[in-house]
Design goal:
This protein is 29% helix and 36% strand. It is of the alpha+beta class. The model has no long low-confidence stretch (mean pLDDT 90).
């Protein structure tokens, strides 16, 4: 079953890290993702650009409304995602718990709602 791991953290914490510490975290995160791919669990994943680059789109009565940034104010922002394949939710949680940027915030693990059978 596929699960989306949504990685949340406070971008300010990441921005305020010394460059060497931030680079080490990125290296660790990329290495873990490579391990997920090699083990057959990793399907897709990428970090996201800073929250300032986001736009929120809402459609009301057929008309789109666009606002800058995320819609809600939070201390933590969506910083990236990893789509994984796991036996069950327990295994997905176990895999998500090892995502390095989770140390700066958290990871939301959600099953993919399969609309089209595989």
């Amino acid at each position: 079953m596929r699960y989306m791991c949504l990685i949340y953290y406070d971008e300010k914490k990441l921005d305020n890290m010394p460059k060497t510490e931030r680079d080490a975290l990125y290296d660790e995160a990329y290495a873990y993702y490579d391990d997920l791919v090699r083990s057959g669990h990793g399907i897709a994943g990428d970090p996201l650009q800073p929250v300032e680059t986001a736009r929120s789109v809402r459609v009301q009565k057929g008309k789109a409304s666009i606002t800058d940034g995320p819609y809600v104010e939070t201390k933590e922002q969506l910083g990236g995602f990893i789509l994984i394949d796991a036996r069950d939710l327990d295994e997905a949680i176990q895999l998500a718990s090892k995502i390095p940027p989770a140390r700066l915030g958290g990871v939301e693990v959600r099953p993919i709602h399969e609309l089209i059978p595989e």
